[in-house]
Amino acid sequence: MNKIIGTSIYDKFGVYYIRIDSNLNLNVNDKVIVSDNFSIHLAEVISCDLVAEEDVYLDNYNFLRVADNDDIQKYEQNKSKITVTKNIVRDTAKLLDLDIEVISASYSLDNKKLYVAYYSENRVDFRELLKELAIIFKLKIELYQVSDREYSKVLGGIGPCGKPICCSTLLNDFCQVSIKMVKEQNLNLNMSKVNGLCGKLKCCLQYENDFYMKLSESLPNIGENIVYKDINYIVEDIEPMKEIVIAKNEETGSYTNISITEFIEEYR
Question: Measured between alpha carbons, how far is 264 from 261 in angstroms, rounded to an integer?
Answer without folding.
Answer: 5
